[in-house]
Structure formats: C-alpha cells, structure tokens
Amino acid sequence: QVxxxxxxxxxxxxxGSLRLSCAASGLSFSMNAMGWFxxxxxxxxxxxxxxSRSESNINYADSVKxxxxxxxxxxxxxxxxxxxxxxxxxxxxxxxxxxxxxxxVLRGKxxxxxxxxxxxxxxxxS
Length: 126
Hints:
By secondary structure, the protein is mainly beta. 4% of the residues lie in helices and 48% in strands. The protein has one helix and eleven strands, in the order E-E-E-E-E-E-E-E-E-H-E-E. It has one helix at residues 103-107, and strands at residues 3-7, 10-13, 18-25, 33-39, 46-51, 58-60, 68-73, 78-83, 92-99, 115-116, 120-125. Strands 2, 4, 5, 6, 9, 10 and 11 form a seven-stranded mixed β-sheet that branches. A four-stranded antiparallel β-sheet has the order 1-3-8-7, with no helix packed on it. The model has no long low-confidence stretch (mean pLDDT 94).
C-alpha cells in the first residue's frame, strides 16, 4: 500500500521559512517523479514544484521560483520542500504527490500524479 505522509507545516510570519517533508512508503521511490502541490480555500489545487528520480529535472511554479527549493533523498524515501521568504499568499494546504511518469515533473499537472498525501497546512501571517 502506497503511503505519502507530509509534515512540517505550521504558522509562520511573512518573510519566514518552513521546511516540508514527505515520507513515502510502499512504492519504488527511486522510480517516481515527486511533486508538491497546494490548495487554498475556494481555489483549485495548483502545482508548486517537482523533481525527477535522478534530480536531473526540477520544475517550479513561477510564483515560488527563487524562494522555494525541492529536493529528495532516495535513501530515506523522502522529498523536501524548503520554503523561504514566505508570503501570505502562500497560505494553503500543501500536498505531496508521486507520479509514475517523468512527464509529471515537466507538466506539473494534477492528473500526472497517481498517489497523494493527506496534506499539511501552511499559514503565513502578514
């Protein structure tokens, strides 16, 4: 059974930092594209960042470029999202996702990812 468990969310002031973690189990972690998405109240789920199994391909949404960094540790079956210079508009539930196709890294589409975590809340106060 595939499980993705996110952690590291919380409340932070604008300009602050948080690091999200996603621990994966039950899948061949090194074979998957891993991504982070977020969903704010009343809005659709949107792409944040993604990384390929070899880390050779990394993609970011324009809204987080230069502030967020995605990384993965295949030995620990974990993917991370370092979030710096946080803004109130970054407030959302953040979801970890695993996709079988490497296209998921390039396209950043929800339908490219087969497995999802339960989400972790990130709240940025102004």
